[in-house]
């Protein structure tokens, strides 16, 4: 009996000391809680992986104290559209994310995803510094059912039924919903009815639909109507991925599209958007051809005239001719003694031939950072009350992969005063969580997971450029994920507390 009593005391002592070791007090901070409300002075207590108390707090015995020195404490930023996961598998400390204050990324975007069971196994075998959630990709479903080389057509009814079965299983495993990349070849030929049939399954599971819409340029009006109709028919929340206007003739008309979205919302359609803070995008050369006629000189000339600026658009990856990397399309055309339109066609041919000759090649064959948006449209989309911030980034090429969130805080909050700090952080945290259906992150609230970022609003700034796309931002001081400090002083701490976020 005496032995049992001693063992009970020992267990209690271990539990007590573990709790104390994990207890932290972050004091002397300006709290921006992620709701959009006015900031206030206070302190936040972390116990284990949760927020335990907020307010005018005093240190408890044995409690670790962090003095915020009057800087801003915000919820960890949630990136609603990320392509960082593959690099996380190689570099689990997640510097591109943590250095921006991002504590959770949502993958499976543009219609390409891992299935939940695969993702769960990957994260169990390789702990990560940040949290990861995913949508189920429409293109991935098409490739699984139709075959990777047979997706340039409409799906047959029986194939759609098979896709629905796979989707339902993935949703039951915790997927956040269905994503599509209808502008890309793998899904471009899918009918609207196919997408709606699958979206209805996601709606039955009380999840969401997010889409890189079918066009961001020549048929953008039809593409916007399509996602609105999907929201209307399924009665589920729908989100436009990285909303933009990518055709010069329609630049500076963002407000007209926002009026269209507001009218849809007034009808009861829960349509939202995410947006990244740059006037240039990063994708394949092929998306420049709205009709997918990659050898058509007229279409290539239209792309040069209307879809991108050849003098300001840079090849950030080109495996067939590595020497082209870092050069503009105009410069490459001059080097080849061709017009930019002809060069565009020839580069796509070179990439296609490279893929055929190197079927086992790992990595990106070709990618372009293309100037294709107006600054005014970007600002208008950021300002919309129902847009949240994303990166659409990865770890190379486009600076958005390292700089999106600090860029909003530096350029659009401090310098241009487009939105207040509290609103910007709301668009990175609480609003994002709401748009994704995540209930226990995105706010500094008692009981929520302790995903937090300490930042200096006076100096926070993105430093990444096309020429140096991996430059770390300034002003992100400390980052916690699930109560553990993962980033401090421009360095990773080595802690890997990230978890798989499930619906």
Description of the structure:
The structure is a single chain. Helices cover 37% and strands 19% of the residues. It has 503 residues and is α/β, with parallel strands linked by helices. Helix 6 (157-172) packs parallel to helix 8 (192-204) and helix 8 (192-204) runs parallel beside helix 9 (220-234). Strands 1, 2, 3, 4, 5, 18, 19, 20 and 21 form a nine-stranded mixed sheet that branches. It has helices at 2-22, 85-90, 95-98, 116-125, 138-146, 157-172, 185-188, 192-204, 220-234, 254-266, 297-307, 329-336, 340-357, 375-383, 400-415, 421-428, 430-436; strands at 24-31, 40-47, 50-55, 64-67, 72-75, 77-79, 102-107, 131-134, 136-137, 177-181, 208-212, 238-240, 271-275, 280-283, 314-318, 366-371, 387-389, 452-455, 476-481, 484-488, 491-492. The longest helix is centred in the first third of the chain and has 21 residues, at 2-22. The two termini are 46 Å apart. It has a domain at 281-372. The chain is built from 17 helices and 21 strands.
Keywords:
503 residues; alpha/beta; nine-stranded mixed beta sheet; 17 helices; 37% helix; 19% strand; disordered N terminus
Identify the overall geometry. Answer: globular
Task: Find the count of extended strands (DSSP E, 2+ residues).
Answer: 21
- End-to-end C-alpha gap: 46 Å
Strand content: 15-25%
By secondary-structure content and strand pairing, the structural class works out as alpha/beta
Radius of gyration: 24 Å
- List low-confidence stretches: 1-21
Q: Give the helix level as a range of percent.
A: 25-40%
Mean pLDDT: 94
């Amino acid at each position: 009996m005496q032995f049992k009593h001693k063992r009970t005391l020992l267990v209690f002592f271990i539990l007590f000391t573990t709790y104390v070791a994990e207890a932290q007090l972050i004091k002397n901070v300006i709290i921006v809680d992620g709701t959009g409300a006015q900031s206030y002075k206070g302190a936040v207590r972390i116990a284990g992986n949760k927020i335990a108390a907020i307010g005018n707090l005093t240190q408890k015995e044995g409690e670790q104290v962090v003095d915020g020195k009057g800087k801003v404490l915000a919820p960890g930023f949630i990136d609603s559209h990320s392509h960082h996961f593959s690099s996380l598998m190689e570099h689990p400390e997640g510097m591109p994310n943590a250095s921006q204050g991002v504590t959770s990324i949502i993958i499976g975007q543009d219609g390409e995803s891992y299935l939940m069971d695969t993702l769960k196994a990957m994260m169990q075998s390789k702990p990560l510094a940040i949290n990861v959630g995913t949508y189920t990709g429409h293109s991935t479903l098409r490739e699984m059912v139709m075959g990777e080389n047979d997706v340039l057509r409409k799906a047959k009814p029986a194939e759609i039924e098979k896709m629905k079965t796979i989707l339902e299983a993935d949703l039951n495993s915790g997927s956040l919903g269905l994503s599509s990349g209808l502008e890309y070849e793998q899904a471009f030929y899918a009918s609207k009815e196919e997408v709606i049939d699958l979206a209805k399954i996601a709606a039955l599971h009380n999840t969401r639909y997010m889409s890189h819409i079918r066009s961001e340029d020549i048929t953008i009006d039809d593409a916007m109507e399509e996602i609105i109709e999907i929201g209307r028919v399924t009665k589920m929340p729908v989100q436009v991925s990285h909303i933009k206007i990518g055709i010069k003739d329609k630049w500076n008309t963002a407000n007209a599209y926002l009026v269209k979205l507001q009218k849809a919302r007034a009808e009861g359609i829960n349509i939202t958007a995410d947006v990244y803070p740059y006037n240039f995008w990063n994708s394949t050369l092929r998306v420049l051809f709205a009709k997918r006629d990659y050898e058509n000189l007229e279409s290539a000339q239209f792309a040069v005239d209307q879809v991108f600026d050849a003098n300001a658009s840079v090849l950030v990856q080109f495996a067939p001719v590595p020497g082209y990397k870092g050069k503009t399309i105009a410069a490459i055309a001059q080097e080849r003694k061709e017009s930019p339109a002809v060069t565009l066609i020839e580069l796509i041919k070179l990439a296609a031939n490279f893929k055929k000759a190197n079927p086992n090649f790992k990595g990106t064959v070709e990618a372009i950072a293309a100037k294709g948006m107006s600054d005014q449209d970007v600002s208008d989309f950021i300002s919309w009350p129902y847009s949240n911030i994303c990166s659409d980034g990865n770890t190379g090429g486009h600076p958005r992969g390292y700089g999106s969130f600090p860029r909003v805080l530096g350029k659009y909050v401090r310098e241009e005063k487009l939105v207040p700090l509290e609103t910007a952080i709301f668009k990175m945290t609480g609003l994002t969580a709401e748009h994704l259906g995540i209930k226990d992150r995105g706010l500094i609230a008692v009981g929520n997971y302790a995903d937090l970022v300490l930042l200096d609003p006076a100096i926070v700034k993105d430093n990444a450029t096309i020429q140096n796309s991996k430059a770390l931002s300034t002003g992100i001081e400390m980052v916690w994920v699930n109560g553990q400090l993962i980033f401090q002083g421009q360095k990773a701490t080595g802690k890997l507390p990230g978890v798989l976020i499930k619906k």
